[in-house]
Amino acid sequence: MAGADGPAAIGHAEQAVQDADTLGSVRHRAKSQVVLAAALCCTGDLNEARRVADAAFTLTAEFGLVPLHWAVGCLLADIGSAGGSAAAITAARDLAAETIRNRGGVWSRH
Prior knowledge:
This protein has helices at residues 6-23, 26-42, 46-62, 66-79, 86-102. It is mainly alpha-helical. It has a single domain (6-102), classed as Serine Threonine Protein Phosphatase 5, Tetratricopeptide repeat, CATH 1.25.40. The longest helix is centred in the N-terminal third of the chain and has 18 residues, at 6-23. It is globular, with a radius of gyration of 14 Å. The chain starts with 5 loop residues before the first helix and ends in an 8-residue tail after the last helix.
């Protein structure tokens, strides 16, 4: 993505999702799904990005992966969710941010 090559970013992210599945790590799968959704946004494939991001949103909620839930919530708040209302996504994102702060996280303004 940083190199402005969306298709290559998608390929790398898809491989990361497959690798995470092989390893059996829920956190790595969720993280890779978030990166894949962002890469799909870079190529303008918002429908597929929403599908992938919605799956990551559900997975991160189910397993309590709060920082990743916040990250994918931010993405979905911008591109919209195929499955959740804008209000529900925003509320979940904001709750995740509050949880992170309550657990000692500090937001940088840089």
